[in-house]
Amino acid sequence: MIVAYVRTARPSKEAQQAQEDEIAAAMGPIDRVYRDTGSGLTTHQGLRDAIDSLAAGDVLAVVAADRLGRSAALYQQIVQEINRRGATISHGIE
Q1: Which string of b and e fits 68-80 if b means at least 16 CB within 10 Å?
Q2: What is the pLDDT of residue 14?
Q3: Is the model's pLDDT at 56 over the cut of 60?
Q4: pLDDT tier at 43 (50, 70, 90 boundaries)?
């Protein structure tokens, strides 16, 4: 299953849709989309829900690694949790 996560700094349906469209163009059909708005300095509920939805073999797709968070430590923590679930991450789609 392809799970897309999109995050924009400000509320913008157009910007979120653009990220979703980029993911779909690179990955094919998306099964689920989770969205957040706000700074990358904190973990957001949409990201938490996206990670919680992952099962073995799933892919969490984001347009860029910084969509997950700006801290290297937070990014590593997220990647480790995704890997523990048997899922993978795809980023750098832009």
Answers
A1: bbeeeeebeebbe
A2: 94
A3: yes
A4: low
Q: How far is residue 87's CA from residue 14's CA, in Å, rounded to a whole number?
A: 28
Among 18, 17, 8, 5, residue whose Cα is nearest residue 87: 5
Q: What is the reported pLDDT for 30? A: 96
Phi, psi at residue 59, to the nearest 5°? -125, 125
**Token pair for residue 60?**
């969490």
Side chain identity at 84, as an amino acid letter? R
Q: List CB contacts of 31: < 8 A, sequence separation 6 or more.
A: 1, 2, 3
Please report, for residues 42, 47, 92, the alpha-carbon distance to residue 36 in angstroms, rounded to integers and kept in the order given: 11, 7, 18
Asked if 68 and 47 touch (Cβ cutoff 8 Å), the reply is yes
Cβ–Cβ under 8 Å, residues 63 and 94: yes
Amino acid found at 21: D
Order of strands, sheet of 2-8, starting from the edge strand that comes earlier in the sequence:
32-37, 2-8, 59-61, 88-90
